[in-house]
Design goal:
Elements lengths: L1 E2 L3 E3 L7 E4 L2 E4 L9 E6 L2 E6 L8 E3 L15 E3 L5 E7 L9 E7 L6 E18 L2 E10 L2 E11 L5 E6 L1 E6 L15 E7 L5 E8 L4 E3 L5 E4 L27 E6 L7 E4 L6 E2 L11 E2 L6 E9 L4 E5 L7 E4 L8 E10 L13
Antiparallel strand pairs: 1-21, 2-18, 3-4, 5-6, 6-7, 8-9, 9-10, 10-11, 11-12, 12-13, 13-14, 15-16, 16-17, 19-20, 20-27, 21-26, 22-23, 24-25, 24-27
Length: about 350
Amino acid sequence: MMYFGKFSKAASHVSTIFILSGLFFLLLASPAFAIRSLEWRDGNLWIIPDPSLNEEAILFQPYIDNPPDEWMNPVAVMSPDFGWVVYSRHTGGGYENEGQSCFVSRWNGADEKLLLETTRIIENGWWLECQGEFYVAIQLSTGGTIYRSFFQIVGLESGEVEATIEGRIYGASYWGARYQPQQFYSAVGLRYEVLSFDEEPYRWGIFYVDELTKYAPADGILDIDGTPVSECELTDGDVRTAWIADSTCQPGFTINYDSDFNGRALLIQSGYQWHEPPPGEGLPWEGTDMWPLYDRPKTILLTFSDGRDMEIELVDTRCIQIFSIPEEYPLGHIKVTIQSVYWGTETHCGEGEGG
């Protein structure tokens, strides 16, 4: 897919990428990094610091004022940057008054806040990160039955529920997303199974945190080879679609712009970013990652309306790549020609790598 223009993130008040007057800025967070871990001792939660740091282990007691019943499994998970702890607490309500809610605080107990208030049982939690923003996946079930399990994705800063997905999480994925996490230990996806009434899985899936990222084409694009931008796979912003060329070498397309358009950056996401779910039997996750199977663009030639050319070279990565267009190039239309590719494992175009 390829994007020309606007970028937004669900429930986010600060855009990560700004495009203005031919310039682009990519903002990266660089929080302090200190390794800490969680440890349960006699029902109490301790924060264990990195032995190389001059820190003492901290007794962290999220349940001291409201201890859980014996049958409740206390949940506590530390963030990938080791700065936050998310945990459950019995708050009552719901089936047999078993409701729990999710809280979050700093690793030392400061800045505690309610993250998600529920009347359901919280089974577990996972941290996710996308473009430096943290999200928490909270697994919920009702009345002792796990077949009605679902999980919700909540933004750490916003406190908003960004997505609700039916199913029960059984593992995390650390690869396959469009963005590489800024924290080394960050998961980028969650693998889940959907259970039938007899609590046996019948369907599997995977949720990637970058699904929360939204795209929209620039207002000044008239069409792509005569196809409206809302209907074109290049600009529809959907990770399940991709612009696909035939087997001939050096395929291309033409972008036609409005006369008043003045966008000066090109956002390119290379490759088919979709994961085919498994068929419903066999191992819990035997789906297919489409990205390595097909050729991905390597070098692209941009031909402008005045006949001048500009060549750009892409890195073979799932991440979005940004290229600025100098002011001296006119934007009446741009012809995009793929000159060479990175070969896929199933098919390729040309003779030799980059052919």
